[in-house]
What does this fold into?
Amino acid sequence: MGCYDCCMRCLGGIPYCSLVATLLCFSGIALFCGCGHQALTETERLIETYFARNLQDYITLAYIIQYFQYVIYGLASFFFLYCIVLLAEGFYTTSAAKQTFGEFRSTMCGRCLSSSFIAVTYVLAVLWLLVFAFSALPVYFFYNMDVTCHTIDVLTETPASINQLCVDARQYGLLPWNAVPGKACGMTLSTVCKTREYRMTYDLYIAAFAGAGITLLALVHCSLYLAVNQMYLRKLRHREEERRGYDLYGRLQRDRGGTLWSPYPANMSDIS
It folds into this structure.
């Protein structure tokens, strides 16, 4: 076998759909976990600097942020291992591997394992849909804040009651209702929106939201691919059983030294 044939043989055994899903999942999780972790840190800094003066007002928020950061560590580790396992499952069940390495073979354990991966991936996709929706909340908060700041900048040319335009962190549950000041209004809010910390936090949340969407897309793609591949393998198994039946029929013919005739008539009209 030449070098070209060997390379084509190796490339033919790669499960490209599983590979694409794995790369999407890796990139989405990296984007969500990395940007989400840093965005939570910057959010705590913004709340501490502009929306709360007393440590007791945002100490609960600080603990919640720390808790979510630990959850992010766990998610990154879990999906890193799970994507590797899914890629290995793709190599095991791909039809390209079947065509490359010989005739189809399947065991009951392998079929049960493949079905389990389909079910687990589907459940993860449903759960991650909730994470995707939850990651949209901070984007919504910062979007409202950005729109309010833009309105204040427009009204500065024609001064009006811009101090009535506020963003209250207490309304979003970030701070208790007795927090002081708990909100930023007017030119103070406009100044906050022009800071580097605000712009970076807003961009990080958008990137984390996009990462959650990419991960959801990868999980849906992977679950669909595994389901279709499982159906294809089941079809191959039926073909293999039919081929064995034909081989057995031919062997019986050779053993009898003639043709095996069916005891039943070929045409039902022949029955008198």
